[in-house]
Structure formats: C-alpha cells, structure tokens
Write a structure and sequence with these properties.
The chain has 5 helices and 5 strands, in the order E-H-E-H-E-H-H-E-H-E. It is globular and about 50 Å long.
Amino acid sequence: MGSLEGSGLPRVQGGSIDGSDAGSPERSHGRLYAGTSGFSYPSWVPAFYPPGTRGDALLRSYAERLPAVELNNTFYQHPTASKIESWLAATPPDLRFTVKAQKGGSFRAMRGDPGTTVPWLTAPYRLFGERLGSVLYRIPEATRRDDVALAALLKAWPRDMPLTMEF
C-alpha cells in the first residue's frame, strides 16, 4: 500500500479510542480494512486523488490510499469476468473488495428459490479469491420482515463466502 505521508489524511494508530488498553498484552490481533462506498468520483480530484486523475486511474490511485473499497456498480449490473480481472489487475494484492450483491438477483433470492438464485448470484464473486472482503446484501427498506425467507437465504449462502447484511 502506498504511503500517506504528506497527503493530509490521518493515520490510524492501534489501540482503543480512549487509550484505555495502552500497553495491554490483551490486544486484538488482525487487520482493519477501511474504505469508502465507491471510488469513481471525479469530484474527489484534487482533494483525494492527484490532479489530473481520471478514468481507470481512479481505482489505482484509490488503492494507494485505502486498503478496501465497496463496489457499488455491482448492485446494478452483474460483474463480468473481464471487469473483475481489470479491478484485480489495477490494485495491489492486499486491497479487499466489498461487492454489493446485484439488485435483481438479491430480490429473487429473498422472494424465490435461493437454492438456484444464490449460486448464480455468487458465481462471479469467486473470481476475487482471497481479495473478496465481503458481499454486501442490501434488503430494501420497503421489504417486510420475513424470517423464513432470510433463513432460506442464509442456508443457501456459501459458507466460505463472507456476507454482510444491510437492512
């Protein structure tokens, strides 16, 4: 990952927010992946992106600053293999992708047969390999609570594919 030196962006330090665990041997271990919802924002030039950054260079530049990104366009269109390959090629191996589950497939999986819809919905996400941080599954506000449908979706969801639910 690129350096934040001179970027004006804050650097995250380890430990609790209030410092109560300073020097404590019982610290959590792992890695925090922080990112934004989307990356293709030309209006972020020059505050976030270097002057002149545009097009395909936006993701590359983004990945020099943050270790994770949420892909919003996957909500509107199922990603193609070539698109996923281009995202992977444009970014370092430690960048993690949160993929927003495709809208139509998400709806069908909750209202139809998740046993057939979930494999279709998740197949392209496997191309991310270990770089898949999570699949963000958005349940629209207007959707009535249905515990049976949710249980069926969770049962059909691949155990090896991280899932984040947004209600």
